[in-house]
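Exam revision sheet. Question 4 asks you to relate a sequence to its structure. Input first:
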Amino acid sequence: MGWGASTCVLIAEMHKNRILEGKKILLIDPDDKKENDKTFCFWAKEDEEICQDYSKLISTSWDKIQINNGCPKLIDPLKYFHIKSIDLYDYSREIISKYDFSCIKTLVLSVENQVFLSVKTDQKEYFGHYVFDSRPKKIREPFQKKYSISQSFYGLKIKLKRRSFEDRVYRMMDFRVSQAKATQFVYILPYSKDTALIELTRFGKDILQINEAENILNKFIECNFGEYTVVGKERGIIPMTPVSPGGNTKANVINIGTRGGNVKPSTGYAFKNMYDQSRLICNSVSFKNKSLSKKNRFLFYDQLLLIILTRWPEKGRFIFERLFKTNSPVFVLNFLDEKTKFFGELKMFLKLQIGIFLKSVFFWILWKGKKHIFSGAMILCVFLPSSIQGYSDLSIAPYQILLLALGLIVIGIPHGALDHFTEAIDKGKKITIKFVARYLALMIPIFLIWLWQPSLALIVFLLYSAWHFGQTDAKQWGVESKAIGFIWGAILLSYLFITHLNEFNIILSALKIPPFENFQGIRGLRYLIIVLGFIFPLIFRRFEWFLVVVFLLLSQYTNLIFSFGIYFVLHHSRIGWHHLKRKLQVSHSYMFKKALPFNLGAIALFCFFFVNIESGVKENTAYFFVFLSCVSFPHVLCMNAFYSKQAE
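Answer key, structure tokens:
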């Protein structure tokens, strides 16, 4: 889907590897790509494979670089190569014309997993085995938007009345223009002594407008090169976001181009990354290797620069000027290609304005910390006093009950009161009599199992709870394996119960279930369980997951009800709520309003169980345990359908 540079490069690589033979190919794009609308450039050594593969398309190359009107510098052994977009489009068109190929000029509405992959457009539905998706992604999360900017550019292809260009020198950045509360520079690619592409580029939140760009370019060209005529125009917008877009969770759907994370966040360069990803895809079994591996430190550098360009845009000019002034251009280009060593990078940063980078590190910590504030709060809650002489044998203090009740009212109950929006039980996203009847009908079997065989009911409850908690967390942390999700859910619950065995046995006795007696043997398992818990976040490199395991490790220092409640309210309910909000694209207030009827009913039941003066906390906890298992079952089914549909 899409016929941009990434698709063209992928087609060329597939042709080279003879992958397209015997295949049917469908290209879907609203544009037929018959205009020279863009310029694709990259730097490389002449003997690199990318240069060999695209030697017929490279129209111009330069071996010198210039910043502002400074002295041009050689970039040997590198060269800067130029490809016209129309040549790349025509090349891909020539390749696919040799195969069973169709092209549809339309927009893609959705991609879904059925027996085959289904691609719905505004005209028709198409089916296939693989989809390569280059459509631009929307930035949804606030923490992504905060330091996301755009590289917007507008260029004029001109012919001078007198020869003034140095045709072996490309001017990478000329900052001698108004910065306009952004970082702006002119970029010059001379094709000959009197023809060139002169482009104004802006790094900033505000998109560069055509009239504004033409006025700035006209003044710049006339001042530096004299009279000229315009022979072509070029415009584009490249997203510069601090968060990698990630892979596609749908089987056999491969994100490429900008959607596949091939645009370097701090510069907008992408062509070589597209080429490298295409090679990775074509050299893997069944296209399993979908995206390039990223070096975390370079993403960190990109994020620091984006923070600077967002918060202090006027500093961008001086950073780039200093970067090229204090380092060789070859080192800088290799650094931008992420091919340098750490100690060389450290020396480079020490030559720059170190103060502004230290400030950006501070804001980076604040920005990243916001994502983990709830995980940190969970850990801190563990250390709140929980007296053994508390409100009952379950050692829960009255203030802890109050905190949990507040958490359940604010987020715990509401997150489960929107099951009608999943459309798993009834279509239409409305609370109907049929929906309520079906929901209650799903609760009845669980209640009957409790009456018939409490031990079996407990096992069933723990199994689907482990599945649900694990599935929600796996979705949050980008883990596709359902088995890993379930194992994590089992680790979570088993560790909580094993480290609170006395309290768990009290609940079991209230439920008329035989308690566990081999304390030492069972408690010995906790070491193995927590080690397994730490392995997952280390493998998947998820810091939030790591913090949750730290909370789990420390949860033994507070009581069972409070520790489980902390996880349920501050973690599980919160992320489940956000998953629904992200999918539904509605406000928090709208969701609370729609959840209100269920909230009121649940609060009434909660008060009935915990304010019943005839029973103690132990008995009320047991009753609530049964109630929770019954009401959870249809919720687990609804959310399972919701997550499964998202994965299609």
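Marking note for examiners. Residues 388-392 have pLDDT under 50 and may be disordered.
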